Amino acid sequence: GIQVEQSPPDLILQEGANSTLRCNFSDSVNNLQWFHQNPWGQLINLFYIPSGTKQNGRLSATTVATERYSLLYISSSQTTDSGVYFCAVPADRGSTLGRLYFGRGTQLTVWP
Amino acid sequence: DVKVTQSSRYLVKRTGEKVFLECVQDMDHENMFWYRQDPGLGLRLIYFSYDVKMKEKGDIPEGYSVSREKKERFSLILESASTNQTSMYLCASKLEIQYYGYTFGSGTRLTVV
Question: Which pairs from A55-62 meet CB under 8 Å and 24+ separation?
């Protein structure tokens, strides 16, 4: 299956700092998603980003599919940004069955 | 407005017990998934279902089975629980026609002693 690698594995920030999380994948994909898991375990979808750049408030994401990577930018980080950030790619290209391969995640801790 | 509900937040079971983890969604989603999350390993797919009574193995199906008798309910079954099945279990669902739009439950942390 497709290998998904995330870096860094851990990130500690002071509130207000900016950060960039990276996701590399081993094969061409037709879409990529970023998720955030809060400290209580709830996972929510942040971005569906097959290519290009999207922004949602202080978060933005860029996927360069031809070079097999995606970046998640967090600006002016807040303590509520803490948690684990996952990227995921489909196991079945072109299918909407929905099987995903997840990376191992980046654990982000934001201190006040 | 909880949309994917997992029946238990924490569960402690004994080795050898048959364990049922229940997941219910109220969004009329066709696709449902069971993932297992272990520290440092991310999420790994156990089983998924794309329709009632239809199921497919994921990447780590050994020791597990599933049941989907109704569209809204997807059950994960540990036939004979073992200590290496101690983990966080996450259920998710989405519409069949979309690549995105996953909704996750809040997870069940299972400990097998």
Answer: A61/A34
